[in-house]
Amino acid sequence: MKKHIALITGGTGGIGTAICKELASQDIIVVANYFPAEKPQAENWLIEVRNQYPNIFIAAADVTDYDSCHDMLESVKTDVGPIDILVNCAGITRDKTLKSMTPDQWNSVINTNLNSAYNVTQQLIQEMMERGFGRVINISSVNGQKGQFGQANYSAAKAGLHGFTMAVAQECASKGVTVNTVSPGYIETAMTRELPEQVLTSIVNSVPLKRMGTAQEVAYAVAWLAEEKNAYITGANIPVNGGMYMSS
């Protein structure tokens, strides 16, 4: 039986790493995308994860650039094989209140967090439909559901990701391809660990479970959606937020 191949954009980041490891542990061949300027860090990352997961590879692309994504996808197809599972995980923050937000801060977040999903998915979806199987999982955020002060750019991009999910899910549902969203809440990563203690305490107090989530808990949700037998869930938004935001 052919092993599935997964591509995770932003795969060498905190949540991306957990997703790569979880999928690799399920005997999936995993390709982690990284930003080309970060090649030395990505190569060191690969050395570390390869100790336990020899089925993980890396591939460079600027996901905000359509042609760069095309070159990466062609390289992966040649060197590893056709991609069956896509996790759009690339993301950045450039937080400012709207009145102080520069065009560059707006555009860089929209391009990285939202336009990247188009740049990669659009070039893979037809092949997935032709093969009769595919899993697309978009990593959004609780702030895409409820909004967040100082994050008009980030909230807009993450909300847009789920709109993208629902539309594309309808376009390819009859061809064996599912498209879903995972929306994490506040997750403990290297970035959040650097926040002031007062801010961390405030965050934890706002979560009904009274703790931050882990990248591994996000990865479990992604792996569940990626399973071949999980074929009847599409267009959904799976919250991994500790009860911070609940909707019907």
Helix segment tally: 10
CATH class: Alpha Beta
Low-confidence sequence ranges:
none
Apparent shape: globular
Q: Quote the average pLDDT.
A: 96
Distance linking N and C termini: 39 Å
Helix-residue proportion: 40-55%
- The H-and-E topology, N to C, reads as EHEHEHEHHEHHEEHHEHE
CATH level-4 homologous superfamily? NAD(P)-binding Rossmann-like Domain
- Assign the structural class, choosing from mainly alpha, mainly beta, alpha/beta, alpha+beta, or little secondary structure: alpha/beta
| Order of strands in the sheet with most strands | 3-2-1-4-5-6-9
| Known CATH architecture | 3-Layer(aba) Sandwich
Task: Give me a quick take on this structure.
Helices cover 46% and strands 17% of the residues. With 248 residues, it is of the alpha/beta class. Helix 1 links the parallel strand 1 and strand 2.
